[in-house]
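Reviewer 2 asked us to include a model.

Predict the structure of this chain.
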Amino acid sequence: MIHRTMTDFARVFRPATLVALLFLLLCNPANSDPHASPKETIRFGVLSIAPPARILAKWQPFADYLSEKLGRPVRIVVPRGFGRMKAAVKNGQVDFFYINSYVFYRLKQAGQAVGVAQMVNLDGKTTSRSEVFVRSDSGITNIDELKGKAIAYVSPMGAGGYMAPRAYLRTHGVASGKNVHEVFTKNLSSSIHKVLLKDTAAASMCGVNFRLMGEKVDTGELNIIAISDPYPENLIAARPALDPGLVRRFSEAVVNMPETPEGSEVLVRMSSMKVKRFVRYDPALETITRNMLEQAGLPR
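Predicted model (structure tokens):
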């Protein structure tokens, strides 16, 4: 019975037909490695304090541009907070992600991130400085006068919103969290309003962000009393298990954005996020973060 069935099969499907069927089976994308599929979605995570809807709206042109350049759909994913981003990376729920340098350092120390591209801010630099500001009528002219008072930070996982200003205060004799009470607002405008409403004596954030916020909130009543040392700007990273070829192509597409009219247009729209362009990641910047964490009295 089996012999007759095989004989009938061979009679119907001649050698040339069998070869053609075999070729179609081997070339079917459904039977190939999913990591090699040109249509597999690339998930791009964004860690930000902004509302998810705003994040999606601001980053969608970037995702659309990369989708076209890579020939694969790029979808924006918004894990809320460091813990969820870390879990998303560990569980493979994001492939590439945009994070600040402090968060990147923590993820890399845990073996969960590799640097892909460094953001260049509106000042044309891969580093920035934090500014500590007070009400102009507060009578406070230096950080030593903040002792016994409260300062508003953006987030305990912030680079410019916590690590850099805390390092500056500590190296100048003001132990934040000990001499000064720490308040976390999770929002740039809230930090400014905390000072304006006298809820805190001072606040701190990235200087570029402070300048951008001045276009939305009246900061004329505020005085800057301290400026931190430079810290590395935000960056794009990838999970270590990702295909190196994909990482390389992603990096090239991002770094070369200014070379195309479409990429340049997308970058102009990203200026509200203080992004001017991206360059290749420089591991030497991690030394700055490591040293700043030590100065801030935070775990390295």
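Confidence is low (pLDDT under 50) at residues 1-36. The longest strand covers residues 114-121. We have added this to the supplementary material.
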